[in-house]
Amino acid sequence: MDIDRSKPHIARMYDWYLGGENNYEADREHAARVETAFPSVGLAARVNRAFMHRATRWLASRGIRQFLDLGSGIPTEPNLHQVAQAAAAESRVVYVDNDPTVLTHARTLLISSQEGRTAFVDADVRAPQAILDADALRTTLDLSSPVAVSLTALLHFIPDGQHPNEILGTLMDAVPSGSYLVLTQATADFDPDAFARIEQIYASGGIDARFRTRAEFEGFFTGLELADPGIEVPHRWHPETPSAEGDDLDAQVSFYAGVARKP
Description:
It contains eleven helices and seven strands. Strands 3-2-1-4-5-7-6 form a seven-stranded mixed beta sheet. The chain starts with 9 loop residues before the first helix and ends with a strand. The protein has helices at 10-17, 25-37, 41-61, 80-87, 100-104, 128-133, 135-138, 164-173, 192-204, 214-219, 247-253; strands spanning 66-70, 92-97, 117-122, 148-151, 180-186, 225-226, 255-261.
């Protein structure tokens, strides 16, 4: 499988933000430039991942046993299936990504509990119907029963011209009432200048980025029932311990998060 090491990739840059080693010089160079513009990018990545863990446990506590994780990225333990199956061993998880580096590590995502199941789909989120039609998804998930559809730290790499609302609509139309949509999105609301620089850094590596406002992010949940506390910065969404940093942490994270139920 060919991996182009000359250009940065969002999954490998995110791996660098999390302190991982599955990245190359181009990824590290661009990620370090992002860190110069936004020194707390590593913290933001960790807070975003912690939100994913809490949201997964929250969904499991409400009886969700099926998860579709789009833009899964390079495995970083605990992965979503480990969190879900720790809460409910019978949980089934399908991961989706199309980065060759991610694919080389996909076997890590296929280690399931004995009662549950995990699968991996090599596909692009911008072609949601192909994901839904994939054999690995169809043999792992029962789309007549509720599914948690998750896109964390991914939407800001789907610019408006690639029709993110239509992508989400296709995915949510395929799952029944009682399903959930889990989203996080980077925002420039807290620091417009820094995120203008970040957008330029990504663009210089051939990566489109679109950092959305709170209102734009909330629009992704149109027609769904937002779970309490609604749209929040991720560390304020059902925190396990109170945050001591207050508003300063909000700006250091510069993400929005939300979970919503399909009625």
